[in-house]
Amino acid sequence: MGRSARHAAFFRFWSPAMAYVLGYWWADGYMRIKSSGAHIIEFASVDYGHLLLIASAIGEKYDLRKIKANEACYGMEFCSKQMYYDLLTLGGMPNKSNVIGFPDIPPELLVHFVRGFVDGDGTLAWNGDRPILQIYSGSRQLLADMAHAIKVQIGIPAPNVIANRKLWNIKWSTTRAKCLAAWLYHDNPGLALDRKAAIAADFLNWQPRKLPHTGTITAEMRVRFAAYLPAEE
Fold this sequence. Notes:
233 residues; alpha+beta; Endonuclease I-creI; 2 domains; four-stranded antiparallel β-sheet
């Protein structure tokens, strides 16, 4: 299989890199068919170097001159009918922002998909001295299903989906944000946006000023994230 054929089949075969790029595209990507009939897959980012990393993961030595910038961000596109229809098979769609659902992801690759989505449409930040991890989408159901999938796999309770102007969001804070960041960026390494991975690393050094109240740390979290949690009294 030649290089162009390999990158065209990228979304056909599951791998950590494919799941990450799929998550990133799910958050910050587009697909469309031009009037000429060309099938276009697009990625957008404010981080120029991250688009090059995604291009490399797909298997394409992308021409730097093809990455065009507008006032808001950079954009990168691939012309591939196979990639287009593979994304449709996975649940992707044109004009997806407010209606796209949560794809059927192999459980062992969920962490990579979610990290890709967070790198595309998520925020890791400090609210005073409290770590916050927040994810945004125009699709309420997507966020609800993602939060549920995370809860099932690692035991961090699913937050409520909250309206935020034209978007919806889910948010974890304090101990739950720290554990989620550890799962996404530290315990399961792979492709990641450097600046968000750096904030996640800072989260790991955070300690609550007092023991979390009952219910903040579930039994599943206590087992999975013991190294990051305060000792029980």
